[in-house]
Write a structure and sequence with these properties.
Maltose phosphorylase, domain 3; 17 helices; binds zinc ion; seven-stranded antiparallel beta sheet; 6-hairpin_glycosidase_sf; ten-stranded antiparallel beta sheet; 689 residues; alpha+beta; 23 strands; hydrolase activity; binds beta-L-arabinofuranose; globular
Length: 689
């Protein structure tokens, strides 16, 4: 068993009995681990103009608002009633407990960024309520405990009996474990961790070979168990995570001939054993948590078929099932992945939680393979389809992330607006936990290799090649392509700095042929060390800079920031003949408010020339793109159509819907080949309107 990569904290937990704890459930042996270790969020202090204000807003607005909403919507009351064993479950869904766990997780990361006694005390008080709601054997699920004779209708009469379908008992557990580990890492306290371990011990005693078996209906418990394994070193947690993965595709009650994903098991990624799965399928959030866990277990057990399966699924998603702004889960019915190339714009679902799950998955794929393509996708998701999920105010959210809003009938009522909370409020609380964990996604390490994945101004205190090294990033990313890294080893040290050269800077819109740039890259990526241009080799998308690093060494990399037209694979029918706009990692959209009230009438021909300009006063500071383009116009009498030259102003996709409701589009026709005629019944002659 290999514990080399377990943190110092683990040592407090490692006892002889822990190490022997695998007896009887020893089918998963930790023989290895991710070759690349992440650098903990606690080691990276952000100074970044783009991310730091967002993390601060998350701390100052999102987290307090989430806690307040958990109180106001009775989520906290559910725990109080469970402790008292009286009352009636007072919210809608049996997984509403997780909003509290996720907000505690976010608050924990946040406490390590911004220590706050008041928040710490509030979290501790909430943890007491969670502890009080836990049953003596560790079971924790307010939807049953409040009134076991009348549990939530999704919960089943007995514990676990509806877990495969909708009870979410293990989903709740998974979020509890994730929160508990973050809280422990951030604060050093074990109050939440002990609750999680008590619950996990119950789960491990109930499920396993010769005991109860289920493919959890909503994955995440697997990832959570792996985290508990990492913290405690107890093999049973890893074994149970693997056990849950192995249960997929075992249920006999599905109708495999059916094309209905609810009937054939696909919705739950349960139609085949995980090692036989080849496509990203079913409910996207469930799926991407599953794929994250597959990566975890493959890394820790060296399970090659599992590794091959998760690689194949990744390729399928990135080649055929991802929107150009990084969104996944195209289809609303079932909140799920569509068929290959099924990426409709008008009805795009793109749940915010799916983007959160995708960040977790891409990080793990990077740790497995050390290839920049995973960080490229992570960057695409982070800067576009994920942060679009929260308004600039930090307290208005999108559950789904549209690709196109067309208000052809002149009414704005059907167009989406951000909302402060949802009945099913998984997305806001998922963002609350993702944002403050961002410092943990900037770097990776393997022996003498130090990987830079994200370009985020920060100071990182690292140990590289057994020596203390401080790495300072200074940039104005994503608006400027000039990146600076100052390397400060305590003493001169040999190591390789591997700086990601983003795919988009090497002429690749995507690490697949799903999206490509319409025109080839013009600029080269130049790297200088101490002011001198340096030849470098490219390894898996990383510029490798081997050197005996000395205090104050400066690396500069200049990324080309031309405006790019992106075109989709012709199999994506919805994007045929259309272009999207990209500059650096940022995908753009046109919103009605900058474009004379419309966005659906704008044409972007190959001749249009875009100018980029940073506008500090707009949308908390964004670079806009402008060009003169043909705009389709209908005359006042509604009888003649023509195109007129108009300035198209595009804003970063993530910033849309912060100024009211109206049209928006990511994809623009490159030419006019046809016109859809829209009638306006309310304005027909004679109606008086
Ligand atoms: O089922 C729990 C959460 O609710 C899912 O992750 C979301 O997609 C929403 O359906
Ligand atoms: Zn969600």
């Amino acid at each position: 068993m290999h514990y080399a990569s377990l943190s110092q904290q683990v040592k407090h937990f490692l006892t002889a009995s822990c190490l022997l704890g695998a007896a009887g459930v020893a089918q998963a042996q930790a023989v290895a681990d991710y070759p690349i270790r992440p650098v903990s969020f606690t080691q990276v202090k952000l100074t970044d103009n783009f991310w730091l204000p967002r993390l601060k807003t998350n701390t100052d607005v999102t987290i307090p608002a989430s806690f307040q909403r958990c109180e106001a919507t009775n989520r906290v009351k559910n725990f109080e009633m469970a402790a008292a064993k009286s009352g009636k479950f007072a919210t809608t869904y049996p997984f509403d407990d997780t909003d509290i766990y996720k907000t505690i997780e976010g608050a924990s990361y946040s406490l390590s960024l911004y220590p706050d006694e008041h928040l710490k005390e509030y979290v501790d008080a909430l943890i007491k309520k969670v502890a009080a709601a836990q049953e003596p054997d560790g079971y924790l699920y307010t939807a049953r405990t409040i009134d076991p004779a009348h549990p939530h209708s999704w919960a089943g009469k007995e514990r676990w009996e509806k877990e495969r379908e909708l009870s979410h008992e293990l989903y709740n557990s998974g979020h509890l474990y994730e929160a508990a580990v973050a809280h422990y890492q951030a604060t050093g306290q074990k109050n939440l961790l002990n609750i999680a371990l008590k619950n996990a011990d119950l789960v491990c005693s109930v499920f396993g070979p010769g005991r109860r078996a289920v493919a959890p209906g909503h994955e995440i418990v697997e990832m959570g168990l792996v985290k508990l394994y990492r913290v405690t070193g107890q093999a049973k947690y890893l074994n149970t995570a693997k056990f849950f993965l192995d249960q997929r595709g075992q249920y006999k009650g599905y109708d495999f001939k059916s094309t209905d994903e609810w009937k054939n098991g696909q919705y739950w990624q349960d139609d085949k054993p995980v090692v036989a799965q080849t496509e990203a399928e079913g409910h996207a959030v469930r799926a991407e948590y599953l794929y994250s866990a597959m990566a975890d277990v493959a890394a820790l057990t060296g399970d090659k078929p599992l590794l091959a399966a998760v690689d194949t699924i990744w390729k399928n998603m990135v080649t055929k099932k991802m929107y150009v702004q990084g969104g996944t889960g195209a289809v609303g019915g079932g909140e799920r992945f569509g068929a290959n190339y099924e990426l409709p714009n008008a009805t795009a679902y793109n749940e915010t939680c799916a983007s959160v799950a995708d960040v977790y998955w891409q990080q793990r794929m990077f740790q497995l393979h050390g290839d920049a393509k995973y960080a490229d996708i992570m960057e695409k998701v982070l800067y576009n389809g994920l942060i679009s999920g929260v308004g600039l105010d930090g307290k208005s959210f999108f559950y789904t992330n549209a690709m196109q809003i067309k208000g052809g009938l002149g009414t704005k009522d059907t167009e989406p607006a951000r909302s402060g909370w949802f009945d099913c409020s998984c997305c806001p609380t998922n963002l609350a936990r993702l944002f403050p964990s961002l410092p943990g996604y900037v770097y990776g390490q393997h022996d003498k290799d130090l990987y830079v994945n994200l370009f985020v101004s920060s100071t990182a205190n690292l140990t590289v090649n057994k020596k203390p090294v401080q790495l300072v990033q200074q940039n104005n990313y994503p608006w400027d392509g000039g990146l600076k890294f100052v390397v400060n080893p305590a003493a001169s040290t040999d190591f390789n700095l591997l700086v990601r050269v983003p795919g988009w800077a090497r002429g690749e819109a995507m690490p697949s042929d799903l999206y490509t740039f319409a025109t080839p890259t013009k600029s080269e990526v130049v790297i200088k060390v101490n002011g001198k241009p340096t030849a470098y080799t490219l390894r898996n998308g990383y510029a490798v800079l081997p050197r005996k690093w000395r205090k104050g060494d400066v690396v500069e990399m200049t990324l080309p920031m031309d405006v790019r037209r992106v075109v989709a694979n012709p199999n994506v029918k919805d994007d045929l003949g259309k272009v999207a706009l990209q500059r650096g990692p940022i995908m753009y959209c046109a919103e009605w408010t900058d474009n004379k009230g419309k966005a659906s009438n704008l044409v972007v021909p190959p001749t249009a020339t875009f100018t980029a300009a940073y506008r500090p006063e707009l949308l908390n500071g964004v670079t806009t793109l402008t060009a003169t383009v043909p705009a389709v116009q209908v005359d006042a009498a509604a009888s003649t159509i023509q195109t007129v030259p108009q300035t198209l102003t595009a804003i970063p996709y993530y910033a849309w819907a912060n100024r009211g409701k109206g049209e928006m589009t990511v994809w623009f026709p490159a030419q006019i080949v046809d016109v859809d005629l829209v009638t306006r019944p309310a304005e027909l002659p004679g109606t008086g309107k």
